[in-house]
Design brief:
2 domains
């Protein structure tokens, strides 16, 4: 629970670190959370949209089609080959009873998703083992990690910020810069130049 007036802004996670964490979760056979992280960092969806996904939405698919809960917008997302491999692996390990069940469901309820506060507590437990990650840990970190990866893979270009601004439904690229923590880094660099 947040204290009124406090700032609890999620930060992004380093791409290599988040992949290390996923590898460790595979070793621990924590299938749901490794897939939750993979879906988050490879689609950029909000946690509310991820939690509504069913196996039939992802298994043996090249695209994910979703109507965003917050905006009502339709999105067609090309599934990255790494994400497709993760979906296949976790599906084979879990062997769900029905493909119309939620992927991230409350046990034993096939049509009720895991509550977000439960996910956030689990993420805090997971990330407690990785002190190299600095900043607030919560489910929204996955969406920001996706955004930073897109920006970095596109040479930190303004074109990438424009695409992300549109994808994230931001009013302008300045909002996207602030959202991804880029603006704060730029301001920090300004002080270091003195």
């Amino acid at each position: 629970m947040n204290i009124k007036g406090s700032r609890t802004t999620a930060t992004y996670c380093d791409w290599n670190l988040i992949h290390q964490i996923m590898g460790d979760l595979v070793g621990q056979k924590d299938w749901k959370y490794v897939l939750l992280i993979a879906v988050g960092i490879y689609t950029g969806l909000r946690i509310s949209d991820i939690l509504q996904l069913r196996w039939e939405d992802l298994v043996d698919k090249d695209y994910l089609e979703v109507h965003e809960k917050k905006t009502g917008k339709y999105r067609r997302i090309t599934l990255h080959k790494f994400l497709k491999r993760m979906v296949s692996m976790v599906y084979a390990e879990i062997e769900p009873y029905k493909d119309d069940h939620l992927i991230f469901r409350r046990i034993p309820h096939p049509y009720k998703s895991i509550p977000i506060p439960v996910i956030n507590r689990k993420f805090k437990q997971i990330f407690a083992n990785y002190p190299q990650h600095k900043g607030n840990v919560c489910s929204h970190m996955l969406r920001k990690t996706f955004g930073r990866r897109v920006w970095d893979k596109n040479d930190q270009s303004d074109a990438a910020l424009i695409m992300l601004s549109e994808m994230f439904n931001h009013m302008d690229t300045f909002t996207t810069r602030r959202y991804l923590g880029i603006r704060q880094e730029e301001l920090g660099d300004l002080y270091r130049m003195l």
